Every structure is written in C-alpha cells, then in structure tokens.
Amino acid sequence: xxxxxxxxxxxxxxxxxxxxxxxxxxxxxxxxxxxxxxxxxxxxxxxxxxxxxxxxxxxxxxxxxxxxxxxxxxxxxxxxxxxxxxxxxxxxxxxxxxxxxxxxxxxxxxxxxxxxxxxxxxxxxxxxxxxxxxxxxxxxxxxxxxxxxxxxxxxxxxxxxxxxxxxxxxxxxxxxxxxxxxxxxxxxxxxxxxxxxxxxxxxxxxxxxxxxxxxxxxxxxxxxxxxxxxxxxxxxxxxxxxxxxxxxxxxxxxxxxxxxxxxxxxxxxxxxxxxxxxxxxxxxxxxxxxxxxxxxxxxxxxxxxxxxxxxxxxxxxxxxxxxxxxxxxxxxxxxxxxxxxxxxxxxxxxxxxxxxxxxxxxxxxxxxxxxxxxxxxxxxxxxxxxxxxxxxxxxxxxxxxxxxxxxxxxxxxxxxxxxxxxxxxxxxxxxxxxxxxxxxxxxxxxxxxxxx
Length: 452
Fold this sequence. Notes:
The chain is an alpha+beta fold. The chain has four domains: 139 residues, no CATH class; 92 residues, Elongation Factor Tu (Ef-tu), domain 3 (Beta Barrel), CATH 2.40.30; 75 residues, CATH 2.40.50.100; 101 residues. 31% of the residues lie in helices and 32% in strands. It has a six-stranded antiparallel β-barrel with strand order 2-11-15-13-12-16. Strands 3-10-8-5 form a four-stranded antiparallel sheet, with no helix packed on it. α2 packs antiparallel against α3.
C-alpha cells in the first residue's frame, strides 16, 4: 500500500511538472494581444487644395538696354546721390550710366561740317541760278529785237541766228541751274538727317531710366564694353512697382481644370517662415510646356506686397483652394485606410464585413479595402471599438485635404472614437524557439504596421 502511494505521488508530481512546462512554453510563444490606436471624429471646416510650386515675380519689369556700342565710363546717381546699383530707387529720366561718346561726338562734328558744306553749296547754286536768270533775260531781249528787225540789210542772217542760239542756250543754262539748286537742297537735307542721326547716337550714350521703379539687376560694370549688334545688350532690370507682385506657378495638366481666374490662393516662402500670404488667380496662360512628358501650365497669381516682405524670385509653395465645406464631420485618412483581421471583428459583424469574394491580404490576413478618393462621394468603412473587438461604421466620404476626410453616415457622430491603427506590445521571447539553430522572429510594432 505504501509503495502504491509513493508511485501515485510520483506520477502526480511528474504530471504537474509536465503541465507547468507546457503552460510556460505556450505563454512564452504566445503572440501579444494588439491594442488599437483611436482617434475621435471631429466637427470643423475642411478645404480641398491643390499644391504647386512657383516663383515670386515683379508685376511689371522693364529691361533697359543700349542701342550703341562702347565702354561704360560712369554710372549715374539715384535720388539719394549714390551711384546706381542694385536696389537703387530711380525716377523716369534718371541717368543710369554713360557710355564712352568720343566716336559719336566725332561723328556729330563730321556730319555738322558736311551739313555746313551742303548749305554753302546751296547758296552758291542759288547765286548761279540768279546769274543764269539774268543772262536769259538779256538773251531774250536781244532775240526780241532780232525778230523785229528780221534778217535783211539791217541785220545779217548770221547775227539773227546768233541771237536765237544765245536765247536758247541761256534758257537751257537756267534749267541746269534750277536742277543744281534742287540737287544741293537734297544734299542739305541728307546732311541734316545724318547730323540728327549722329546726335541721336550721341544721346544714346547716356542711358536713362524710362520709368519710375527700383533697380533689381545691374548687369554691367565700369570699364565693360557693350556691343550692340542684332540684339540690344541688357544693362539694367527695373521693377516698376514692388508693391504689387505676381507668383508664376507651374500647375500639372491634371489639376489645371480646377483652377480659374479669381480663385483664392495662399502661399508661403522659405524666407518668411511662419507667415502665410494670400492672393487671387489673375490668369491662366495657355502656352503649356512639356518637361519629361509632363505637361504644365503657368498660372499667374496676383498678390499685394505693400509691406515689402516679398522679394523678387523667391520660391513660393502655393495652395489653390478648390472647395471648402464648413461645419462638417471629419475623420483621419488613416481611419479609412485601416482594416482589421477577421478575428478582430465582432462575431455578429464578420459575415457582413467580409462578404463572399472579399480579397484578403496574403501576409496580414486583412480584407482589402479601397481608400476613399478625394471629393468623389464614395462609400467607406470606419471601425470603432466594440469590447475586445471592432465593428464597422459605413460612411460616405467627401472632401479630402490630404490628412482629414469629410464623412457622413447615420451611425457617425461627433466624438465617436474610430480605429486608426494598432500597436502590439513587445514581449520577451515572443516567437522564439527552443532550437538554437532555428531563426528567431519577433513581432514588434514596426513589423505589424508594415504588414498593413
């Protein structure tokens, strides 16, 4: 009897050891239960926007060039008496620079002398014309007397013919004199035009500002030679009014249909962190450009710069407001993308949540669910806690700003907590094997999220 009791106690002890070992092993390899990350449904305003990048440009820019060639001798002065430079404020007519005018001054002197010579020739031709007119008058009187006498005893035939020839010659000489006067008058006009041209070129040696504005670019230095051939060289770039600026934005062809003149725009620049500027679409330029098979259009946005905070050619990060809804229910986009595993769904909702033909992701075991598209009014599914499980909430989606999506549904209300993800707490020895040659795996937060 005592021997039997000893065997029974030994068997019970061995059974307890085996049961404890099995329990310890199962606990060691148990996958930790996931905890859901939740977010509340909120009520607020939502705006759908198109993002693009542009450049801040002056509203009107005047490119001042040179019409003559020569060396830059000096710069002019601004209204403060300082030499013209970057950022100088100028008025219309302000002297910007002087080009070496020695050659052009010589041309003026040469053409002025040619004009004086032509004018002297004209006076001489006019005097000769007077002499020829007098000779014609004398020949005409002699010829009249000869005609009255006629050829005979009083006037020989040779004398009669000589008076007639003298009259005809004087008449022809007068015509030659008149033509010479006309020719010298034309020469005077030609010399006068050449003088005016030379004087104009001499005037071009002084570069003046055609408008009131600010110098935003000076492209020459003293001593530099500018050459004017087919194209006028650019010397200065003047912005007429920096209180009005434009943003030239490159917009993809897929978004250009949502942009129209008068549309509200907000933008930021890296030079002014934390500040947001506003403007309106002024025009959509139709000359599209293609870069690497991507077609873009230039949209001009007008903005006020009375404060002077915007500088030319800053890079602007632009947001075009396409639509705005106020006082609507919004949910995080992550809530519409997340889907649970079948075992995480409350039993009474599993059949409805996973209809026949539903595709289940191969690795995570989650049913595939299309994300709600921007502004399309499609149906979506949110998931909310139901004890240790989750249950679906059917909604219809609206505007999407990239982070939050407008949603509405009969079971959706403000303050409802929806699942946006899950976290699996790390556990020592999770997924380990007693065999030291077996690869060891751990299911962590990162790995679980990567499967979704």
